[in-house]
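fold-stage: in
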Amino acid sequence: MLKIIVATTTLIPSALLIKPKILHQTLTSYAFILALFSLTLLKQNTYLKPMSNMYLNSDPISAPLLTLSYWLLPLMMIASQYAMRTEPVQRQRAFLMTAALLQTTISLTFMATNLTLMYIMFEATLIPTLILITRWGQQSERLTAGTYFIMYTLTTSMPLLMAVLFLNNMSYSPTPFFTPTQSTDPWTNLLLWLACLTAFLAKMPIYGLHLWLPKAHVEAPIAGSMVLAAILLKLGGYGIIRMMQIMPTMKTDMLMPLLILSLWGAVLANLTCLQQTDLKSLIAYSSISHMGLVMAAITIQTPWALAGAMALMIAHGFTSSTMFCLANTTYERTHTRILMLTRGFHNILPMMTAWWLTANLMNIAFPPSMNFTGELLIMSSLFNWCPGTMILLGLSMLITATYSLHMFLSTQAGKLSPNLSTNPTHTREHLLMTMHIAPLLLISMKPELVL
């Protein structure tokens, strides 16, 4: 654990010391080496591994998410190269330093074995993300987006802090993740659950606490959008799975309102996607609907549902990141994200159209992709728990297919806008898409790595 954490932390001073000419190349190759190191986390035998470290450890829940975050670090750097090339060297260094700091805090959150450390690191991820959104964001509203982001996350994480302190007082030591809390008064239990879940629900985000997400996505630079969609939303799901291990046992009926809200929220978010005119905003709302399914699966707490939630979180991490990269390649050429103005691209960039089609099929959860595995597990476990959920799930799937095809057709088909001068696609962009989609297809051939 420590060797990866130390190596990630040393990326921060490296961003300040490397010569300007080789800054991007060197840091990206370092990040790729770290990504390869992190692949070893997927194949550890938890039964044979001793608890070598009382603060940091990884298990089958955190390892896939850790590997995903390390895999996306070099891709963030590659995706930002075009935007960064016109910036002064100091700002380039600051950007790469912020990305490395964000990666360090994210990996510490996933590796933490006690609640207090996880809470501190969970909050620490806010600072680099906020810097990314407000310093390298694209439009004048980026400060508003940053304010939304901070207000939502901080307001909801105050109750979590209270709950962490309460749990620590009950156990007279920092609560580790494998000692379930003894049950107390039923009302205390309910308040504990609410306090712990709210912070993670706002981070996922569940429909109703989601207003910060489209704003943050639209204003963030490409690296910010990638890390927000692919990793920071998963911190919410991961936190809830972790919390359920140590919380006093609760009947699923008590969590029924949450389950209904997450399924209904998924349908509403999908409907919102249909009326979006902004490409980035559309992809952001699609993330909310997928996270609704993950939340519904985690709530019923069966092994199948949890496996489905993990699979969908990993698959969605790759898919949404790919879609943001594609939206960014279009934006770099047209300088607009309005769907009406970015049509007809398949006439001039046919290879990009192939990537768009692949990403949209993944988003619809087309077999044999990992998204399909995740959604199938979630659907079967929800149907087994209550057949009535099928109505909302079916509706959600139907609308997902509709808006994905609408997005594909409105960006690729039709006549080109006049006065559009575009550059051909670069090898860098094709490499970026390959590095997103290849792991997704490879994992779908061996899904037990992440289940």
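fold-stage: in (second)
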Amino acid sequence: MQYLPIFVQLTGQPVLIVGGGSVALRKANTLLSAGAKLSVVAPEFAAEFITWQQQGKAELINSYFVPALLDNKLLVIAATNSDTVNAAVFKAATARNMLVNTVDDQAKCGFIFPAIIDRSPILIAISSFGTAPVLARRLREKLEALLPQHLGPLATLVGSFRNKVKAKISSFAGRRQFWEGVFNSDVVRKVQANQLDAAKQHLEQLLTAPQKHSGEVYIVGAGPGDPELLTLKALQLMQQADVVVYDNLVSAEVLTLVRRDAEQICVGKKAGAHSVTQQDTNQLLIDLALAGKKVCRLKGGDPFIFGRGGEEIQALVPHNIAFQVVPGITAAAGCAAYAGIPLTHRDHAQSVQFVTGHCQHDGSEPNWFSMSNTNQTLVIYMGLMKAAYVQQQLIKAGRSAETPVAIIENGTRREQRIVTGKLYNLAELVMQHQISSPALLVIGDVVSLQQDLHWFGLRPQAAVFSQNLTQMA
């Protein structure tokens, strides 16, 4: 370990920055956010430094660096564009046993600035010891996406209860168990919903009379397959859940992001082979939640677009089970985008219609005439088995047999495959290329743009191609 990571209390502490340009400005901004008493020496200053001086946030010294300026300072930062001046600052500071940071010169640093994730009072610092600052920044970006914004208010709330908990629970093990219960309770959910007074009241109740933890169900859209299309909230709830109940449409890559110790239950449905009925799935969610579990109901695409999320919530409501709904990128939007097919376009389609290839048990027919408008894009979910019927009915209702069509198999995933053709040979394309689920049918003039707008992987050379996704370094 080249450096010892420590957090320094800078509120009201004197810090000197040598340099008045843009680099010095970035360091100054960080130091001011930590409450430092800032002095800046330079022959000229960026405009923001002038503003800070007028606001009383910084003392500007319009001069060149001399060692005497280091008197009574806690830290010093050398941030000029002169190697000679920076070296002089480093030499003078180290002679006084002061901590010094020379920007972009690791050899002349007694301390370094890490990449910071601020969820005050939670603070996370990441450093590569100056060897790979861009990599450290990218790691920070990844962690920023994982860490919810409510962490700060939650830490502030529980921090205000520390002394109360110590007075109430004498043993360390007992206090740890209590806090584990708090972080698995509705206190977190209420803070997340910005119900801070309710969260505080609930925490008081837990301390006065510990209660059995109530369960909750998260109805979460997992998107069409690419894990990078998950929303931040989806990822956060996947990490919080005790149990994840998922469908076959949820990709293996997405499932790897589930909390490692969470129980995973597949209730996947495939055409002609339903492993779990919808009624049994509803009952499973009810039973798990009533047992006090945090349940993530993970669905491919969006839970409210052909995802039966509404039906599952209707089953939860009579049992007073708390729930949240997290939208996901529906297959139509995600797969079409990755295929280079805009669902609407001023020259080709002024509307888009999503329909399912699965009909109700009563056999009700969709309105084929409404789906046959020339200036409309039609997206059919779960339509493979009825491709021939779709083709027949649309042409019969007046849609041109020459209308471009696309079949997108495993959209947004590494194995994505696209077949394009005309409406008159839609069923033939499905059979000829042995398309399998999950697949989406896109019908409309916008499909003609696919060859020019395709961007995901190599440009196709023919109507059929396989897609390899380059792994993120």
